[in-house]
């Protein structure tokens, strides 16, 4: 019942492999509602054993397009047959109470491809929302890749930013990860 222009989101990240895990700094730029806004965030992927790791995130923005603060945590576990599962949450602080998002994933490797299904559940007193995304990633080598993501649902989401509306929405995105030195990578995305 509303005419809402698409949200255009661009990002660039720089990652460094450390002994504790991968550390990534990321800058997001969004164009929405006739405004352009920026958000900075840090992602850390500490390893906690063979086939086990965490995703930890904190982000900040002084733009109304993004949440002022965002945090997240997720646990990943490798399983037999080249599969992986995860379970986690995100908290977004706009004004008022933080938005709580519960998520997880199931991933399957087939040769040089990785397919990931990720649902998002947002409990709310005015009505819960559920959305999901499917990502197909092609690995050029062990750490460099190209990805295509498509998603749909009420409050369709990405791993990075969320915008909530009382309507059905869709999303599509592309990104990649490319080596720029022995232990550093750059990741552009749209």
Structural summary, described in words:
By secondary structure, the chain is mainly β. It contains no helices and twelve strands. The protein has strands at residues 8-17, 21-32, 35-49, 52-60, 69-79, 83-93, 99-110, 113-122, 129-139, 145-154, 168-179, 184-189. A twelve-stranded antiparallel β-barrel has the order 1-2-3-4-5-6-7-8-9-10-11-12. A hairpin with a 6-residue loop joins β8 and β9.
What brief labels describe this structure?
190 residues; mainly beta; twelve-stranded antiparallel barrel; 0% helix
Layout of helices and strands:
Blueprint lengths: L7 E10 L3 E12 L2 E15 L2 E9 L8 E11 L3 E11 L5 E12 L2 E10 L6 E11 L5 E10 L13 E12 L4 E6 L1
Antiparallel strand pairs: 1-2, 1-12, 2-3, 3-4, 4-5, 5-6, 6-7, 7-8, 8-9, 9-10, 10-11, 11-12
Entry summary:
The protein has no helices and twelve strands.
């Amino acid at each position: 019942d509303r005419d809402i222009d698409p949200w255009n989101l661009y990002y660039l990240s720089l990652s460094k492999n450390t002994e504790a895990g991968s550390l990534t700094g990321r800058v997001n730029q969004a164009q929405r509602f006739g405004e352009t806004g920026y958000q900075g965030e840090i992602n850390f992927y500490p390893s906690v054993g063979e086939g086990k790791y965490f995703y930890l995130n904190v982000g900040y923005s002084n733009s109304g397009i993004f949440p002022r603060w965002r945090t997240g945590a997720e646990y990943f576990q490798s399983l037999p047959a080249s599969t992986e599962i995860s379970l986690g949450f995100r908290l977004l602080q706009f004004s008022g109470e933080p938005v709580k998002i519960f998520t997880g994933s199931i991933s399957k490797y087939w040769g040089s491809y990785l397919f990931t299904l990720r649902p998002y559940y947002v409990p709310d007193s005015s009505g819960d929302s559920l959305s999901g995304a499917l990502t197909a990633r092609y690995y050029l080598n062990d750490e460099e890749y190209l990805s295509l993501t498509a998603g749909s649902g009420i409050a369709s989401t990405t791993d990075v930013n969320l915008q909530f509306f009382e309507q059905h929405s869709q999303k599509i995105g592309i990104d990649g990860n490319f080596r720029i030195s022995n232990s550093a990578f750059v990741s552009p995305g749209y």
